[in-house]
Amino acid sequence: MSVVSACSDSPKALTGSKSDPSGSPSASQSDAKITASIPADATDVKVNRSLRLNVDGGTFQTVSVAGTSGELQGALAGDKLSWQSSGRLQPGETYRVRGVAVDQDGHQTVYRSKFSTQNLSMDQQTFPSFFPLPGATVGVGMPAIIRFDVPIENKASIEKHLHVTSVPAQPGAFHWVSDTEVHWRPQNYWQPGTKVTVNADIDSIPAGNGIFGQKSRTSSFTIGRSMISKVNTKTDQMRVFQDGKLVRTIPITTGQQPKYTTRSGVKVIVEKYRKKRMNSETVGIDPNGPDGYNIAGVEYAMRITYSGEFLHAAPWSVGSQGHANVSHGCTGMSTANAAWLYGQTLIGDVVEYSGTDKPMTLTNGIGDWNLPFDQYAAGSALS
C-alpha cells in the first residue's frame, strides 16, 4: 500500500509518497520529491487558484487531477519538472491529485492528495448573456453587448477575459455602460458582411466583492448590408441609404418643438414591432390629459430609444409629414413608407438625426456612436 504524503513546513510544499508502480513499498527509496501548490486536504479553496506540481530529484511520468465533473486540464513542462493546470477549478468540487515521478535510478515516487473548492451560491456567480443573439444578422451600428446578471465590481479582472474578434478585422474598444453591461464597438461602423465572434471566458474569474464568473460562453453574429437613414428635423425628410446609395427619401414628422423635441444624434434600431400599442403614460404623459394618447395597433414600429422614440406609421399626421413637426417625439410617416422601411430594416441599422439641440445620450438606447472613439475607448476598465 502507499505511504500517505506528509506536509512540509511550508503550506505550499507537499512531499510525495514513495512506492513502486504496483503501489507496494519500494525496496529502494526514490530521490524524487513532489510538491504541490495546494495543500492536501485543503478546503474552501478559491476557484481562481491554479494548481502546480513540481518535482526535485527526478522527472514526472504522469499527472492526473480528477474532479467531480471531470478532469482538470493541465500540461507537463518540456523538461518534465513541473505540471501546471490550464483548466479552471469549479465551485463545490473535490479534486483528487495523482502524480508519478522517477529519479535517475528509475525509483518511483507516487504523490496523492485531495482538496475541495469553495461552494458558491448563484448570488456569488455572474452569468454572461449576449446581444445580439447568437446567429443573428444585424445592421452596421450594432455593438457587441455582454450583460451580467450579478454586478461586476472588478471590471478590469473580467474585461481581461472578454474578447471580440471579427473577419475582416476592425479596430475597436470596450466601454462599460453600467456595472452589469459592457459594449464593444468598432472605431467606425462595421463593414458589411463582417463575421463577429464574442468570447466571455470568465469561468471562475474573480469579479470583485466575492463574485466569480459562472460560465464561459461564446457567441457569433453577422453584419448584413449597410443601411443608414438620415433624418433632418428641419426639412422633415428622411433619406435612406443602402450600401452608400440613396434608395428613398421619405417625408416625415418629428417631435413638436420645444415641448416634445426629438433628440439629435446617432440612434440604432433596437426593436421591431409589426403592431404596438402606444400609451403616453409610458413616457410620463397623462393619457387622459390634453396631450395624452393611447393608440392600439400602431403599425411598423421600430424603437430607437429606451425613452420611447420610434419610427412608425402615422396615418393621422400625413398632412404634416414633410412640412411640420407635430409628434410627441417619434418619427412618423405614411403607412406605405413605414411598411417599406420596416421590410428593409435590421436590428442594428443606423438612424442619424440632425436639426435639434436636444442630444441623444449613450445609454438611452444604443447610443454608442454619440461618443468620439477616444472617449468611448476611455470607458474600458483597461484603458
Radius of gyration based on Cα positions: 30 Å
Strand order, main sheet: write it out.
3-11-10-6-7
CATH fold type of the largest domain: L,D-transpeptidase catalytic domain-like
| Shape summary | elongated
Q: How many β-strands, per DSSP?
A: 31
Count, helices: 3
Instruction: Classify the beta-strand content into a percent band.
Output: 35-45%
Give a quick account of the main beta sheet: strands, pairing sense, barrel closure. Answer: 5 strands, antiparallel
- Which class do the helix and strand fractions yield? mainly beta
What is the typical, i.e. mean, pLDDT?
92
Estimate the helix proportion, in percent: under 10%
**What's the number of domains?**
3
CATH C-level label of the largest domain: Mainly Beta
Write the CATH architecture name of the largest domain.
Answer: Beta Barrel
Report, as a whole number of angstroms, the end-to-end distance. 56 Å
Looking at CATH, the homologous superfamily of the largest domain is: L,D-transpeptidase catalytic domain-like
Question: What are the segments in which pLDDT stays under 50 over at least 5 consecutive residues?
Answer: 1-27
InterPro entries: Big_10, LD-transpeptidase, LD_TPept_cat_dom, Transpep_catalytic_dom
Domain L,D-TPase catalytic: 227-354
GO molecular function: acyltransferase activity; peptidoglycan L,D-transpeptidase activity
Pfam family, one: Big_10
